[in-house]
TrEMBL record:
Kazal-like domain location: 472-527
Membrane-spanning parts: 40-59, 80-104, 110-132, 220-250, 270-294, 356-375, 395-415, 427-447, 552-579, 591-614, 643-666
SUPFAM superfamilies recorded: Kazal-type serine protease inhibitors (SSF100895), MFS general substrate transporter (SSF103473)
PANTHER family: ORGANIC ANION TRANSPORTER, SOLUTE CARRIER ORGANIC ANION TRANSPORTER FAMILY MEMBER 1C1
Lineage: Eukaryota, Metazoa, Chordata, Craniata, Vertebrata
Catalyzed chemical reaction(s): L-thyroxine(out) = L-thyroxine(in); L-thyroxine sulfate(out) = L-thyroxine sulfate(in); 3,3',5'-triiodo-L-thyronine(out) = 3,3',5'-triiodo-L-thyronine(in)
Name of the protein this chain belongs to: Solute carrier organic anion transporter family member
Residues in Major facilitator superfamily (MFS) profile domain copies: 45-670
Family to which this protein belongs: Belongs to the organo anion transporter (TC 2.A.60) family.
GO cellular component, one term: basolateral plasma membrane
C-alpha cells in the first residue's frame, strides 16, 4: 500500500484524471511494464550496437589486410593505396558535424540503421570491380600455361614461335588493352571506402549517448565497456578473414584452378580479396536491421527520474518541479544558445591558450601519424621483409598483435584505477609507454632479412652484390643471344639458389612439363655462378629467402607483440590526461577539435606519405599490358626496413618531445599544496572537482575513451 500511495501521488502530480479506485492498479501495472520495457529495450539496443561495432571493426580491419591484394589487382603503387585507405576518414569528416548536431534530435536508432545500410553499400561497392574488369592476368611464359606447343624460353628468333602462338599472344594483349580501362576501377574502391566512412559516422556518437541516456546509471559504464570489448574482437576476425581469403585465388569460381601456374607464395598472387567484402557487407546489413524496430525513446529508469539520486544531470536540476517544465526549459536553452552562439564561441577559443591541451594535441597528432602509417603497411612490410605470404601475415596480426593491443588498453585503464593516478601520474605513464614502446621498435632494425638474390637486381650474373644501375644490369653475356624483355616479371629459381626475373633472362633453351611443374633446362646464366662451363636447370617461382630469415621473423613477432602492448598501455592515461586538463564547459568543444585534428592531420595524410616513401624502395616495377608502370614486384629489403621503421621512429621521437613538454608544463603548474591535496583525495594540477568525482567519471571514460581506430592500432 505504501508503494501504491506513493505512485498515486506521483501519478496525480502529472495532472492525470482517472478514477481513484483504478489508478493504483494501473500505476502499479504501468511501473512494472515500464521497468521490463526499459531493461529489455536497452539490452536489445546494447546487443544490436555491439554487433554493429563488431561489423564496422571487422570491415575496417579487413581493408587493412587487403592492401597488398588491391595494389596487385589494380596495378597501382602504394601511395595510391594510401589515398584509398584515407578516404574512409574523408567520408567520416563530411557529415560528422551534421550527425553530431542533428542526430540527437532525430530518431537515433533509425539513423544508426541507415548508417549501417550506407556502410554495407560502400563495402559491396568495393568488391564490385572484380565482376566488371575481367579475369586477372599474370605474367607467365607460354610453356607454363599448359601449352602443347614447345617454345624455347630464349627466343633467338621470332620465327621460332609458331604463328598460332604469336597470334594468340597478340589477341590476349589486345583484349587486355580493351580491358585496360578496368585498371581505373580502383576509383570504385575509393568511393566505396568513402561511403563506409559516411555510414560509420553516426554509430559511435548516437549509439553511446543512447545507452547513456536510457541505461541505469551504474550500468552505463559496464554496457559501454561491453560494446568497446566487442569492437576490439572485430579486427581479430577481420584479419583472420583476410588470411582465409588471401589463400583463395582471386578468380575462384570463374576459372579452372588447375590451370593456375602461380601459388600464394608468388609476388604476383592475388587472393580472393573481394569475397571478404561481400561477407563484411552482408554482416553490416544484418547488423542494421534491429535498429529499424527500436523506439526513438525508451522509458527512463526510475533511478534517473528520482531527484534524490546523484546522477550527473540531476546536479543541475535542484527542484522537483523542473522535471515537469523540462520541455519548456529545453526550448529556452535552445533559444539562448542560438542568441549567444557567437558570444560563446570566442570564449571557447580560449581553449587554444591552454598549453597542456595544445602540446598534448600536437603529441597525439604526430604519434597517430606514426601509428597509422605503421599499421597500414605492416602486412606489406612482413611480406616483403620476411618473405611471408599474405595469408600467414594476416593470420599472425589477427591472432597475436590485436589481442596484445586489447590487453594493453585494458591494462592502462586498470593501472589508472588501481593506483588512483592523478594528472601528473597519467602524463608520466603515457610518456613512459611511448618511450619504451619506441625503444623496443628501435631493436627491429637489427631483425631484418637480407635482400633476395635476384640476378641483375641485387646480385650480378657472376654472383657478386652491387648497387649500380639495375635496368642496365638485367642483360649479360650469358643471355645476350636471347630476345628478352626487361619489363617481364616471371621469376624462376635456379638450382644455385638465385632468382632470375624470367626464364629468358636466365638463358634457358628448353623446358618440360606444364603449369606449376614446369622445369627449364640448359639455362646458360644459371651455370655462370658456379661453373661457367656447365648449364643448369631452374623451376617456376622465386627462391626462398636465406636460412636466417625464419628465425628473424620469429624474433620480430616477439618484439612486435611486446611493442604493441607497451604502446597501447599509454592510450587510456593519455586520454584521461586530456579530459582532466580541460574546463568542463569546454570539454565537448575540446574533444571535437581533438577528433577532427587526428582525422585530418593523421588519418588522411599518413597512409599517403608512408606509401610514397615505401615506393622509393622498389627495385622492380611491374608493367601494365598496354604500357605504364604497374605495382611493385620486388623491394630492396634493407631500404624498406630503414624507410618504414625509420619514418615510424622519427615521428614517434618527435611526439615524445611534445609529451616531455606536457609533463614539464604540468610540473611547473603543480605545487606542493596541489600534491598534498591530491594525496588526500582532492584533485590536483588541472581540475576543479574532487578526486572522488574524478575517479567515478574516469571509470566511465576509460570504457568510452575515443581513440581513433584503436581496434586496429598494432
Amino acid at each position: 500500500m505504501e508503494i501504491s500511495s506513493k505512485e498515486n501521488t506521483h501519478f496525480f502530480s502529472n495532472n492525470t484524471i482517472l478514477p481513484v479506485d483504478r489508478s493504483s492498479f494501473k500505476s502499479e501495472s504501468s511501473a512494472s511494464k515500464e521497468k521490463q520495457s526499459c531493461c529489455g529495450g536497452i539490452k536489445i539496443f546494447l546487443g544490436a550496437l555491439s554487433f554493429v561495432y563488431f561489423a564496422k571493426a571487422l570491415s575496417g580491419s579487413y581493408l587493412k589486410s587487403t592492401i597488398t591484394q588491391i595494389e596487385r589487382r589494380f596495378d597501382i603503387p602504394s601511395s595510391l593505396v594510401g589515398v584509398i585507405d584515407g578516404s574512409f576518414e574523408i567520408g567520416n569528416l563530411l557529415i560528422i558535424i551534421l550527425v553530431s548536431y542533428f542526430g540527437a534530435k532525430l530518431h537515433r536508432p533509425r539513423i544508426i540503421g541507415a548508417g549501417c545500410l550506407i556502410m554495407s553499400a560502400g563495402t559491396f561497392l568495393i568488391a564490385m570491380p572484380q565482376f566488371f574488369m575481367g579475369r586477372y592476368r599474370y605474367e607467365r611464359f607460354p610453356s607454363t600455361i599448359n601449352s602443347t606447343v614447345s617454345i624455347s624460353p630464349c627466343l633467338q628468333d621470332k620465327s621460332q614461335t609458331p604463328f598460332s602462338a604469336l597470334e594468340k599472344s597478340h589477341a590476349k594483349i589486345n583484349a587486355g588493352c580493351e580491358k585496360e580501362a578496368g585498371s581505373s576501377m580502383w576509383i570504385y574502391v575509393l568511393l566505396g571506402n568513402l561511403l563506409r566512412g559516411i555510414g560509420e559516422t553516426p554509430i559511435q556518437p548516437l549509439g553511446i549517448t543512447y545507452i547513456d541516456d536510457y541505461a541505469i546509471e551504474e550500468n552505463a559504464a559496464l554496457y559501454i565497456g561491453c560494446v568497446q570489448t566487442v569492437a576490439i574482437i572485430g579486427p581479430i576476425f577481420g584479419f583472420l578473414l583476410g588470411s582465409l581469403c588471401a589463400k583463395l585465388y582471386v578468380d575462384i569460381g570463374f576459372v579452372d584452378l588447375d590451370s593456375i601456374t602461380i601459388t600464394h607464395k608468388d609476388a604476383q598472387w592475388v587472393g580472393a580479396w573481394w569475397l571478404g567484402y561481400l561477407i563484411a557487407g552482408a554482416i553490416s546489413v544484418l547488423a542494421g536491421i534491429p535498429f529499424w524496430f527500436l523506439p526513438k525513446h525508451l522509458p527512463k529508469p526510475e533511478s534517473r527520474k528520482d531527484s534524490s539520486t546523484s546522477s550527473e544531470q540531476s546536479k543541475f536540476i535542484t527542484e522537483d518541479h523542473k522535471e515537469q517544465n523540462k520541455s519548456y526549459q529545453q526550448q529556452v536553452k535552445i533559444a539562448e544558445m542560438a542568441k549567444g552562439k557567437s558570444l560563446e564561441f570566442f570564449p571557447s577559443a580560449n581553449l587554444f591558450g591552454n598549453p597542456v591541451y595544445i602540446l598534448y594535441l600536437c603529441a597525439s597528432i604526430i604519434q597517430f601519424n606514426s601509428l597509422i602509417g605503421m599499421v597500414t603497411y605492416k602486412p606489406k612490410y612482413i611480406e616483403q621483409q620476411y618473405g611471408q605470404t599474405s595469408s600467414k601475415t594476416n593470420f599472425v596480426i589477427g591472432l597475436i598483435n590485436i589481442p596484445a593491443v586489447a590487453f594493453g588498453i585494458f591494462s592502462g585503464g586498470l593501472i589508472m584505477k588501481k593506483f588512483r593516478i592523478n594528472v601528473l601520474g597519467a602524463a608520466k605513464l603515457s610518456l613512459g609507454s611511448s618511450f619504451f614502446g619506441y625503444l623496443l621498435l628501435l631493436s627491429l632494425f637489427a631483425m631484418g632479412c637480407e635482400n633476395s638474390e635476384v640476378a641483375g637486381l641485387t646480385v650480378s650474373y657472376h654472383g657478386t652484390k652491387w648497387t649500380t644501375d639495375y635496368e642496365q644490369a638485367l642483360f649479360s653475356e650469358c643471355n645476350s643471344g636471347c630476345l628478352c624483355s626487361k619489363n617481364d616479371w616471371d621469376p624462376i629459381c635456379g638450382e644455385n639458389g638465385v632468382t632470375y626475373i624470367s626464364a629468358c633472362l636466365a638463358g634457358c633453351q628448353a623446358s618440360s612439363g606444364s603449369g606449376k611443374n614446369t622445369v627449364f633446362f640448359n639455362c646458360s646464366c644459371v651455370g655462370t655462378l658456379e661453373s661457367p662451363s656447365r648449364s643448369s636447370s631452374a623451376v617456376v617461382g622465386p627462391c626462398q629467402k636465406g636460412n636466417e630469415c625464419p628465425k628473424m621473423f620469429l624474433y620480430f613477432l616477439v618484439v612486435s607483440v611486446i611493442t604493441s602492448y607497451t604502446l597501447s598501455v599509454g592510450g587510456t592515461p593519455g586520454y584521461i590526461l586530456l579530459l582532466r586538463c580541460i574546463k568542463p564547459h569546454l570539454k565537448s568543444f575540446a574533444l571535437g577539435i581533438y577528433t577532427l585534428a587526428i582525422r585530418v592531420l593523421a588519418g588522411i595524410p599518413a597512409p599517403v606519405y608512408f606509401g610514397v616513401a615505401i615506393d622509393t624502395t622498389c627495385l622492380k616495377w611491374g608493367s601494365k599490358r598496354c604500357g605504364g608502370r604497374g605495382a611493385c614486384r620486388l623491394y630492396d629489403s634493407s631500404a624498406l626496413r630503414y624507410v618504414y621503421l625509420g619514418l615510424t621512429l622519427v615521428l614517434g621521437t618527435v611526439s615524445i618531445f611534445f609529451s616531455v613538454a606536457v609533463l614539464w608544463v604540468l610540473r611547473k603548474r603543480s605545487s606542493p599544496q596541489d600534491e598534498t591535496l591530491s594525496a588526500n583525495g582532492e584533485r590536483g594540477t588541472c581540475g576543479t572537482k574532487s578526486r572522488k568525482d574524478n575517479f567515478v567519471n574516469s571509470d566511465h571514460l576509460i570504457q568510452t575513451a575515443y581513440w581513433p581506430e584503436k581496434e586496429t592500432r598494432l
